[in-house]
Amino acid sequence: MQPNIIDVLDKIFANTLKSRIFVNRDVLRPDYIPDELPHREEQIAKLGSILAPALKGAKPNNVFIYGLTGTGKTAVVKYVLKRLYAKALELGVDIIPCYINTRQDDTTYRVLLKLSECVGLRLPFTGISTSEAYRRFIKVLDTKTAIMLTVLDEIDFLIKRVGDEILYRLSRSSDDLSASKITIIGITNDLKLVEDLDPRVRSSLGEIELVFPPYNAIQLEDILTRRAKIAFNPEVVDKPVISLCAALAAREHGDARRALDLLRVAGEIAEREGAERVATEHVYKALREIEADQVNEVIATMPLHSKLVLLAILELTEGKEGKTTTGEVYTHYKTLCAKLGIENVTQRRVSDIIGELDMTGIITTRVISRGRYGKTRVISLAVPRDAILRALSEDPYVSQLFSRHR
DNA sequence: CGTCCACAGGAATGACGGGCGG
DNA sequence: CCGCCCGTCATTCCTGTGGACG
Questions:
Q1: CB A316 within 8 A of CB A378
Q2: A377 and A308 in one domain?
Q3: What is the CATH number of the domain that holds A316?
Q4: Structure confidence at residue A128 as a pLDDT band (50, 70, 90)
Q5: Which pLDDT does position A317 carry in this prediction?
Q6: Is the CB of A183 under 7 A from strand B?
Q7: Mean pLDDT computed over every residue of chain A
Q8: How many CB atoms lie within 10 A of CB A46?
């Protein structure tokens, strides 16, 4: 037994090492920052001119950057900061870039921790209050004459978690500083974020706004082509494959991350199958795999009753045009609860659950009136049923319902 | 042409668990 | 460490409504 496992592993290792598909798979990963950012020249130029005053030791305006996922916001900001920092070194100007992703560091204290790290101050992980942390950070920063360029990526998470208090503090930090200055660059894909922001913060933070439009299919194709050249062995991907990835991602909303994911996963599938080259069928498989992963993730975190409602929908949409209605779902859902011996929630709640499922994109609903026979929502599945079925069977309660009628 | 079905969906309220500030 | 507040899931009660049917 043991030698067998080792043999298998050896084979896997060897295959990975002498991959005939990939040269450098990492350049297709979402966190990779490329040396060139095609089709974002305009945004690079704008951000560059906004931040350029830092090179003269002046405080640039705060910037707010909007754009849907995969439109290159993070990449552009990181790129511009890198170039700016290099130039500053050359000129002997003190610029301190600081990148914080507030999805990971989503508390005031953790943000302050990161800020301090950027100015070379090590704060304890715990033990001091946030105001003390702020005081110490400011004290160190004020020993310098520097422009601190603070990027707060996915800033909506921070605001949702702790409100806009630190933003206010930071935007008013010049009151506490004599020589140094802090510029804030906020990044978000939530276009209506500013609405629920303290007006004082809004005006100081949104001094300048930059919008990143989605890429179109042609631009995506160009991006993929450049990236594929570095990522793959020559001749293993050809144009139709890349065009397909671009077209599929453009259909979403021009999400470059999505396009790159597709290409990478397609390559991984091709490799797993021991294929010579990446074919369009691998892309379709990749699409299904990525979709299934997302469905899995969404469903896994759902509460039990949402899963049961989803199961009810799943079973009711089998056959007959794949459509069902709220009333049918509720009745069927109640029988499922009865089988499990648990209490059911009210119809009002199920109505909301159906709405929530619609929001996640797993199902599609539309309100219609059947006249004499009342008003209801027509429900149909929006993703492959086997993906849902597999995700639901992960749940220990729900899976009892499967094994029974098997 | 008015009714009335079968829900949609708003408002108020409560149980519960987790995180935060003092 | 404790009380407090907040978000989530849920209930109760409610008003609103498009259009087939009588």
A1: no
A2: yes
A3: 1.10.10.10
A4: confident
A5: 93
A6: no
A7: 88
A8: 16
CB proximity list for A67: less than 8 A, separation 6 or greater = A73, A189, A211, A212, A213, A214
Q: Which nucleotide is nearest to A373 if distance is taken from CA to C1'?
A: B5
Q: Name the band, by pLDDT with cuts 50, 70 and 90, for residue A406.
A: very low
Domain boundary among A264, A298, A332: A298
User: What pLDDT score does A375 carry?
Assistant: 95
In angstroms, the CA of A348 and the C1' of C10 are apart by 10
Count CB-CB contacts under 10 A for residue A143.
10
Q: How far is the CA of A373 from the C1' of B4 (A)?
A: 9
Q: Return the minimum-mean-pLDDT range out of A9-23, A75-89, A110-124, A230-244.
A: A9-23
Q: Whole domain around residue A334: which residue ranges? A: 302-405
Nearest nucleotide to A369, CA against C1' atoms: C18
Structure tokens of A333? Answer: 């859902």
Q: Is the pLDDT of residue A138 over 90?
A: no
Q: Is the CB of A324 under 7 A from strand B?
A: no
Evaluate whether residue A30 is within a structural domain. no
Task: Identify the domain boundary among A143, A178, A211.
Answer: A211
pLDDT reported for residue A185: 93
> Looking at the 3D structure of chain A, how many domains does it have?
3
**Residue A55 falls inside a structural domain:** yes
CB-based contact A320:A313 (threshold 8 Å):
no
CB A203 within 8 A of CB A233: no
Give the per-residue pLDDT at A356.
93
**Count of Cβ atoms closer than 10 Å to residue A342 Cβ:** 12
Structure tokens at A213: 């439009």
The answer for residues whose C-beta is within 8 angstroms of residue A108's C-beta and 6 or more apart is A130, A162, A165, A166
- The CATH number that applies at residue A79 is 3.40.50.300
- Is A15 found in the same domain as A54? no
On whether both A316 and A343 belong to a single domain, the answer is yes
Pair A225, A286 in one domain: yes
- Strand B, nucleotides < 7 Å from a protein CB: these are 3-11, 20-22
A146 CB inside 7 Å of strand B: no
Q: Does the residue A52 lie in any domain?
A: yes
A261 and A227, same structural domain? yes
Q: Which pTM was predicted?
A: 0.77
**Is residue A164, in this structure, part of any structural domain at all?**
yes
Least confident of A46-50, A79-83, A162-166, A234-238: A162-166
Q: Are residues A204 and A64 in the same domain?
A: yes
